[in-house]
Structures are given as C-alpha cells and as structure tokens.
Amino acid sequence: MQKLIPQPHDHEYASFMADPQGYFLSSLPSLFDSTKYMAVIDIISAHSHEEEYLGEIKDAYTRWPGEPDIIDAFYRFSVNIKKIKNEIHRRNVDPRLRNRCGAGVPPYELLIPTSEPGVTGRGVPNSITI
C-alpha cells in the first residue's frame, strides 16, 4: 500500500470515511508498478542451473590446493549439511508433527540446502543476489 489509513485528525479522514473501499483501492500501486516489482523479484529469486549451494563446491582440491585441513573441514561441514537436509525431509513426512504434514499443509523447504533451477522457495546458495 502506498498510503496509510488516515487518523481522525488527518485531512484525508473524511474521504476515507465516505468511501473506505475507494480509498483502499487508490492506495494500491499501479498495474505497471506491480508488474515491474513482480518481474524484479522473480529475477533475483530464481536459481540458475550452475548455482553452488551451501556445502557444495565442485572441486575443493583446486580451490584450496595444499590445504588438507581446510578440505577436510569442508567435507565434514558438507556431511553435516546433508544430515540437515535428511532431517528436514524426515520431519516433513512424520505424521506426528501436525505443523509439518496433513491436508493443505505444505512441507517445510525453506532451509533445504539445495534446489532445482528456477523459483522454488528452497535452497541456500553460497552467495546471494539481494
């Protein structure tokens, strides 16, 4: 909304009281502004097919040559990230957790570490675009 609901002492209060629905509709952004906003959000929210996610690096040996301690720590971290992914999946299918599964309840996917390309609502990339 582009305008707040006016208070009784505001000069727009009378027009708000006369036609609350019209006041509300006049406070919404234009169709062009809404479309532009949706396009920008879609572009910055989409995952590319070559994106690297938390705990994923294509070849750690070429990134950190001669650093076996760093490579070992990274692989331990990567294993822990995979355990988190499996735990989220396990909780999503557990019928005892009524906030996770049931009719009309979407599974929790926000912090699942990986994602398919596109806008998915899941995946934790190594870097962000916002």
From TrEMBL:
GO terms for molecular function: linoleate 13S-lipoxygenase activity; metal ion binding. It is an enzyme of class 1 (oxidoreductase). Keywords: Dioxygenase, Metal-binding, Oxidoreductase. Residues 1-130 form the Lipoxygenase domain. PROSITE patterns: LIPOXYGENASE_3. It comes from the Eukaryota. Its EC number is 1.13.11.12. InterPro entries: LipOase (IPR000907), LipOase_C (IPR013819), LipOase_C_sf (IPR036226). GO terms for biological process: lipid oxidation. This is Linoleate 13S-lipoxygenase. It comes from Helianthus annuus (Common sunflower).
